[in-house]
Amino acid sequence: MKSDIEIARSIELTKIKDIAREVDIPVDHISNYGRYIAKVNEDLIDEERVKKSNLILVTAITPTKAGIGKTTVSIGLALGLNNIGKKAIVALREPSLGPCFGMKGGAAGGGYAQVLPMEKINLHFTGDFHAITSAHNMISALLDNYLYQNRDNGFGLKEVLWRRVLDVNDRSLRYIVTGLGPKSNGITQESGFDITPASEIMAILCLATDEKDLRRRIENILLGFTFDNKKFTVKDLGVAGAITVLLKDALSPNLVQTTEHTAAFVHGGPFANIAHGCNSILATKMAMTFGDYVITEAGFGADLGAEKFYDIKCRKAGIEPKLTVIVVTARGLKMHGGVDQKKIKEPNMEALMNGVSNLDKHLRNLKAFGQSIVVAFNKYAEDVDDEIEFIKQHCNDKGVGFAVNNAFTDGGKGAEELAKLVVDTINENASKPLHYAYEEEDSVETKISKVACNQYGASMITYSTTSRKKIMQIQELGYSSFPICIAKTQYSFSTDPKIYGAVDNFEFHVQDIIINAGAEMLVVVAGEIMRMPGLPKEPQALHIDIVDGEIEGLS
C-alpha cells in the first residue's frame, strides 16, 4: 500500500469554493488561502441549526506508543456517513510542528482517510499557530518592557506567572534566565518556554465565541502579582487590543477537504495531556451549522480528551454530543494486557483478554457522563479474525455496539459499517442530558477528587506546598468556579506512564496549579508531566526532506 503522503499526492484536489458550495457555505463569506484552503467567517454560525445537528465525539482507549488512529477513524466516519447519504462534516485540531518533527510525522489522518492538502495542514497551514505563538510572546515582550520602563517609578511584580511559548519540542527551553548582560538588556529574571499547544492563548482561541469574547478573555489573562498582592493582567498592561489584532484572522475556522472531497474544518490545536485537547468551539459550531452529522475528536484517551470535552468545551459552548465513539486496536489492548511493544503484532488471546479491562474502565466512565457509546475497532493488517470476534463479543456482552473500521485502506467504503451503526444508535436512543464529572460550584479540591478518583481510579490525592498555596490564592481571587484541566501523562490512568491497563488505588500527586484566568480554567499539573516536550533519540525530522521537488517523511 502507498504511504500516507503518496496517497495524499495522488488525489486531485477540488477547489475550496466548490467544497464550500457542496455544504451550502456562501462563498462570499470565505477567504481563500490558495486554491484548496479557506477561512470561513464565524458570523455564519447559526445557533438554531447547531441545536438540530448530530454531534459525535471520537475518543479512544488509553493510547500507547503503537498508536490508536483516532483521527483516521474520525475522518473515516465522516466519509462513511457521506457514503450512506448523510450530510457529514468532520472538525479536527491543527497539527503541531513539535510532534510532526518529533515522533508523529503528522496528524492529518492516514491512508485513504486524510484531510488535504496534508503537507500544508501539517506544516504552516494558514498561520494560526504562528499567530498564537506571536501573540503569546508579544505579551511577554510587552510585559518585560513595561517592567523595564517603569522600574525607576517603583513599579515591579513580586511574581511573574507568564512564560513564553514555541511550537517545537525543545527540553533545553523549559527553564531559562532572561535579561542577562548589561542593564539595557532588561531585568534579569527566571522564565521558561511551554509548547504552543499549551499556551493560554491557544485555549482562549479555542474557547472564544466571537471577537468580543476573544478580547474579553485576553484582557483577563493573569500575568503576575504586584508587591502589594494585587493582580496584574493584560488589561492593566493596556495591550489587549493589539493582541486581538494579531489573532483576528486566526479566529476564523479553516475549511479544507478530505480524501473523498467532503468538507472538513481544522482549527485550533491544544494537546489533551497538557491542555484541554479539543478543536475550537467556532469550528465545531460552524460544522454543526452546515452538517447534519458532525464528527469531532478529543485528544489522547477518554480519561483526558473526552472528560475535558464534556466538562470544559461542552459546558462552555452549550453543546452536547448525541453519541461517543471509542476507538480500540488489538495492538493497544495487547500492550494494556502486558505484551511488550515489539510483540504486539503477534496473536495473543490471553493478553487481549487482560487488556480489555482498559476498555471497560473507559466505557464505565463514558456511561457516567450519560453517553450512548459505540466501539470502533481500527483494523491493522496483522489483525486476526478470532481476536476481532473476541472483542466484538466482549462489547456485545457489555451492551455496546461494535463495528470494524477499514477507512485506512478503503476510505469511506471501509467505514460504512461504523457509519450505519452510529446512525442507528443515535436513532434508537433518546438523547440524554450530559452529566458532568463535577459541578462548577464544587471546591477546587472536590473537582480534582471527582476526576482523579472517579475517572482515573486514584485512592489518595496529595498536594505539593506550591499547589496548596495556589488553591488558597484561587479562592481569594474568586476563580474557584473555573473548570479544571488536568495535565498528566497520556499513557496511563495514573500519573506513571509505565503503568498500563486499568490501574486503581494509586496516589495522585498534584504538583502545581496554573491559573488560566483568560481561558477561565485551572490547569492542574499532576505527576512529572512536562508542558514543553523533548525530542526522541531519533526524531522524525531525520526522515523529512524534499526529494525531486516533493516533500517526504510526513504522515
Task: Give a description of the structure.
By secondary structure, this protein is an alpha/beta fold. The chain has three domains: 4-125 and 250-427, P-loop containing nucleotide triphosphate hydrolases (Rossmann fold, 3-Layer(aba) Sandwich), CATH 3.40.50; 129-241, Domain 2, N(10)-formyltetrahydrofolate synthetase (2-Layer Sandwich); 444-526, Formyltetrahydrofolate synthetase, domain 3 (Roll). The protein is 37% helix and 20% strand. The chain contains 20 helices and 25 strands. Strands 1, 2, 3, 4, 5, 6, 14, 15, 16, 17, 18 and 19 form a twelve-stranded mixed beta sheet that branches. Strands 20-22-23-21 form a four-stranded mixed beta sheet. Strand 14 and strand 15 form a beta hairpin. The radius of gyration is 23 Å and the shape is globular.
Question: Gist?
Answer:
The protein is of the alpha/beta class and 555 residues long. β5 (109-110) and β6 (113-116) form a beta hairpin.
Uncertain runs are none
- CA radius of gyration is 23 Å
Shape: globular
So, the CATH homologous superfamily of the largest domain?
A: P-loop containing nucleotide triphosphate hydrolases
Distance between the termini: 14 Å
CATH domain topology of the largest domain: Rossmann fold
Tally of DSSP β-strands = 25
Largest beta sheet, briefly? 12 strands, mixed
Percent of residues in helices: 25-40%
The level 1 CATH classification of the largest domain is: Alpha Beta
Total separate domains: 3
Query: Into which percentage range does the β-strand content fall?
Result: 15-25%
Main traits of this protein?
single chain, 555 residues, alpha/beta, Rossmann fold, Domain 2, N(10)-formyltetrahydrofolate synthetase, Formyltetrahydrofolate synthetase, domain 3, 3 domains, 12-stranded mixed sheet, 4-stranded mixed sheet, 20 helices
